[in-house]
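Next up, sample data:
>
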Amino acid sequence: MEDNKYLEKILKDEYYSEVYKKYLNTDTVIKAGFILDDFELNEEFYLLDFLTTPVNKIIENLGKIKYNNPVVLLTTGGFDPIHEGHLYMMEFAKKTLKQNGYDVVGGYFSPSHDNYVTTKPYCKTSRSERVELCQEIVKDSNWLMIDPWESMYVKSYINFTDVIKRLELYLQKHVNKKIKVVYVFGGDNSEFMYCFENKGIGVCIEREGYSKIFNEMKQKFTGKNNFFINNKSIVSTYSSRTIRKKETYSLTEKDYCTDDGEYVIRDEGLIPLHNYKEIIDENILENARRYFLEDLKKLFSDCFENKLNIKTIDMKKQLEIAENILYNKNTISLDTYYKGKYNIETSRLFDISDVQKKYINLIGRIGFDSIESQINKIDEGNYILVDDDSATGKTIREVMGLLPEKINIEQIYLLANIFNEKIFDIVDFRDFIIGASSGGLVVRLPNKEVARAPYMLPYVSLKSRASIPAIKEMEMSIKIWELNKEFYKKIGGNIKLSQTDIGFKKLMNYIGFDDNTLLIDICDWHIEKLK
């Protein structure tokens, strides 16, 4: 007699149910990769409104080509670690599909959950470290990305068929209704092709040591959506397990110390919360803000295991010093708060839910004209360019590159220079409070609109934007969402989305929250999803 528990789960799976209906036994289904998990899978479980998966490269590619049959490639696995063999596998699949009339507009590596990876020999790294390493290896690709949903936003391991289904629904909802997901896998898992005999598209890449089963499956499955790619190249021998066995392989977090410099939070006071001053007593607002700041400093300290000094810069003091030094001088300001003779209101635009190590381009800050229009209003002359800080100087160089010859920058003044100690990183307090004026990272939504996202998962990479260790990102994000809930409870608990910064409101509206939603309810929603 068939195991009823297995059978019930199998029949609910769109792919494995097809396998069972044809072969009428669970052994074949298990050969095809089926595992029994504990989840009741539906669209709510798939978190389609929770923006966890980057789509930026697909959007870019759809805008560049004429497409009739758009597909996105997906492969799953431990990727402990990811290596060149994985990359070539996706490239081989892309080439073959293109030759067969498919328009490949993107591809994803989906690292498996820790509960699956820890069953493998020599497992060394956590999900956050594996995701980070995968992101690093594809960062310069114009089509490959990392989908962290399976590893970061699910409580345990799930079937790869559910990863396919969820990704396809997600892309059809947020990008293009025509997109289909093609599953790519190695010859060691050739029997996965059972899943694609009657549904979907499967691409199997030959791998050394598994030629016998690969050839058996190749002869068995000859449908138009079953692709078997012979691979006799050296990359067919690459193995994550072999790499893990080497004692030299390790992905340990940096051991921080005070020699690395001070971690600095720029404290803008109540300025980012000015919208609330008319409806909340200023003393109540200030007390709640101070509690938030102190708790945030403690979170950072704990995050770095108390090995870095966490300090604040008083923005008012910054501005006073700058105004004294720059009094009566021609200035052009790039800073949100310092007002020069001329101001270029500019932001770096990033993609939402991405690794965010590179920005797409510079744009006019939300609510302002384009950068070019603002520059056109600046008179000829010599100027001092003012900004808050400069980690790499890239933004300043790019703005200077846009200035006409008649505008000469003879000096650059950075507000952060009043802090004489070595700086490990510097962040703005307002970026961690949801709804704060000009708070958060400027991001491009899947519909190409520009919004602002708070410095928390799933929207912003704390590793990239705030130098948080990857292994601490999830825990830190949950705690910052909880701090936001406490902050808004302290000031009465009745602030609505309609009363927040336009950039944050646009993000929440896109997700599905209406303007009357309380911010504490928005916090609860995110905390529940992240947990």
